[in-house]
Amino acid sequence: MKIAILPGDGIGPEIVAQAVKVLRALGEPFEMEQAPVGGAGYAAAGHPLPEATLQLAREADAVLFGAVGDYRYDHLERALRPEQAILGLRRELQLFANLRPAILYPELAGASTLKPEVVSGLDILIVRELTGDIYFGKPRGVRECPDGPFKGEREGFDTMRYAESEIRRIAHVAFQAARKRHGRVTSVDKANVLETFQFWREIVIDVHGDYRDVQLEHMYVDNAAMQLVRAPKKFDVIVTGNMFGDILSDCAAMLTGSIGMLPSASLDAGGKGLYEPSHGSAPDIAGQGIANPLATILSAAMMLRYSLGREQQAARIEDAVRSVLAQGLRTPDIYEPGTTRVGTGQMGDAVVAALA
Ligand code: NAD
């Protein structure tokens, strides 16, 4: 099994080093090869996604990604900015399914802005379609309004669309993920107003025919946003389109209150994936040894589960993370009085020790 290691910029190299340490400690025969990406890619090869890095990502069974973004490259034209690397990888590897768990460990319940009893023990998974919907639909643009009460004025317009196969493949991902969890899927749509999402609902119901053991419910997106804040623990897996998923996954992430704890996965149709923390390169704390590596370590656990077929090893890492939190170890972003403040490397070492 080959893993492409792409640390990127800012805190990327510091946090990815901890995840690599944890992966090595598992004693699995993984081959890990590293390559520059983002600002580091530009510095090394004049492009945020150098050809050799893309080639490595293509060859590998999975990609472990840190974060990209470096203010030193903000003056560059858009195509050469570090952030283009992640968009390029999603496009080139055809990563259409974004999996974002929002887990709130009871020890960190105080970090949420919601009452601890509402969020403590929260464990939901948002499955967001990543390559379709209004973000990519055509035609789009700004034009002279052709008809109606605003005829002749300038108007902006976009196209919301989903092909049947796009809905089918994301629905399969959600149902399969639910089988590995608590067996419940909530499909979030706006079927009462939008043709695209009426069609979405029809296809999700059809795919559900292959997963009778999984419970399916449908929810309008406005209600889903409300329920996420009112009673988030009632969800297991939420599956939705690109735009609704974009908004709901950030909302769910913030329920946990600690961005340094949230992993993510982006998968292709064959189960290959790119795994990365949900946060960015945090240039404000880069190089200080204080970044929280747990989101990246938990991303490595997702990689073991979803791309490398190592469920037990994934669970071992997640248990180790729970254990270090129970020991009271905290990086500054999740520190509370009465706990023990540790740095990035110490946190990584503690997870390795807890694996044993
Ligand atoms: P950010 O997520 O990097 O940082 C937001 C805040 O959270 C900062 O205060 C930061 O210190 C803190 N933070 C983030 N991760 C942390 C961690 N692991 N431990 C402790 N604290 C952490 O978002 P931003 O500041 O808006 O963006 C910084 C750069 O990252 C920008 O260049 C942006 O484009 C890029 N970015 C990249 C990705 C990606 O690589 N997928 C995602 C988002 C942002």
Structural commentary:
There is one protein chain. The protein is α/β, with parallel strands linked by helices and 356 residues long. It folds into two domains: 1-96 and 268-356, Isopropylmalate Dehydrogenase, CATH 3.40.718.10; 100-259, Isopropylmalate Dehydrogenase, CATH 3.40.718.10. Helix content is 39%, strand content 19%. The chain is built from twelve helices and 14 strands. A hairpin with a 5-residue loop joins β11 and β12 (273-277). α1 (12-25) crosses α10, α1 packs parallel to α12 and α8 (221-230) runs parallel beside α9. The protein is globular and about 65 Å long. The chain binds nicotinamide-adenine-dinucleotide (NAD). Nicotinamide-adenine-dinucleotide (NAD) binds next to loops.
* CATH fold name of the largest domain: Isopropylmalate Dehydrogenase
* CATH superfamily heading of the largest domain: Isopropylmalate Dehydrogenase
Radius of gyration: 21 Å
- Total helical segments: 12
Bound molecules: nicotinamide-adenine-dinucleotide
CATH architecture of the largest domain: 3-Layer(aba) Sandwich
The low-confidence runs, each spanning 5 or more residues with pLDDT under 50, are: none
Tell me, what is the CATH class of the largest domain?
Answer: Alpha Beta
C-alpha geometry:
globular
